[in-house]
Amino acid sequence: MKIAVVILAGGEGKRIGGNKPLRLLGGVSLLERAVCYASGISKLCAVAVRDETQIGNIGIPVVRDDPEIEGPLGGLVAALRFARDEGVSAVLTIPADMPFLPTDLADRLLDSIGQSRAVIACSGGHQHPVCGLWRTEGLDAFAEYLASGRRSLKGFAKIVGYVAIDWPVDPLDPFFNINSEQDLAEAERLLA
């Protein structure tokens, strides 16, 4: 199955002082790391943001989060529309703030999706729906989901039907995400 990869980078990053996608880890921005990762999976990559000033020029297409939908769900809508418009049936979403994603993420999710409309990553007993493979046909369920007043990715995954795939966390949780200066310092330590 041919897929697109869309990096979700639309959050404000308030807990880290803003501009989270441009924060440096090992001298490379979190966004550049995510673009490199995504490019290794598919030639069809984009980044979803609320405002293009959040990221500057990155060399891949930029799609705008749906302004009517708060949080990462707005990025998922943009990602699904991008994939559909590009003629592919599924999109892998990854966040800009998870610099240690597993190398087998796309392969394992692709192998596991079966007849489901989504498959999401899990680790340490936690689901990470920002790291998911989503069939574009899931767009058909958005109007009903939005009418319910709910806005979570987990809730949307339940509506469309999903499976969850678990990764080990020893020695490192591959879905470690950076939300604060302390997280960034820990990521630097882990990178070293």
Automatic annotation (TrEMBL):
Keywords, ordered alphabetically: Cytoplasm, GTP-binding, Magnesium, Metal-binding, Molybdenum cofactor biosynthesis, Nucleotide-binding, Nucleotidyltransferase, Transferase
Enzymatic class: transferase
Positions of the MobA-like NTP transferase domain: 5-152
Pfam family, one: NTP_transf_3
Reaction catalyzed: Mo-molybdopterin + GTP + H(+) = Mo-molybdopterin guanine dinucleotide + diphosphate
Binding residue positions for Mg(2+): 97
SUPFAM superfamilies referenced in this protein's UniProt entry, alphabetically: Nucleotide-diphospho-sugar transferases (SSF53448)
Keyword Nucleotidyltransferase set for record: yes
InterPro entries for the chain: MobA-like_NTP_Trfase, Molybde_CF_guanTrfase, Nucleotide-diphossugar_trans
Cofactor: Mg(2+)
Residues noted as binding GTP in the record, renumbered to the chain: 8-10, 20, 65, 97
Gene Ontology MF annotations: nucleotidyltransferase activity
Enzyme Commission (EC) number: 2.7.7.77
Compartments where located: Cytoplasm
Keyword Magnesium: yes
Assembly notes: Monomer.
PANTHER family: MOLYBDENUM COFACTOR GUANYLYLTRANSFERASE
Family under the similarity heading: Belongs to the MobA family.
Free-text comment about domains: The N-terminal domain determines nucleotide recognition and specific binding, while the C-terminal domain determines the specific binding to the target protein.
Role description: Transfers a GMP moiety from GTP to Mo-molybdopterin (Mo-MPT) cofactor (Moco or molybdenum cofactor) to form Mo-molybdopterin guanine dinucleotide (Mo-MGD) cofactor.
Full protein name: Molybdenum cofactor guanylyltransferase
Native source organism of the sequence: Sphingomonas daechungensis
Organism lineage string: Bacteria, Pseudomonadati, Pseudomonadota, Alphaproteobacteria, Sphingomonadales
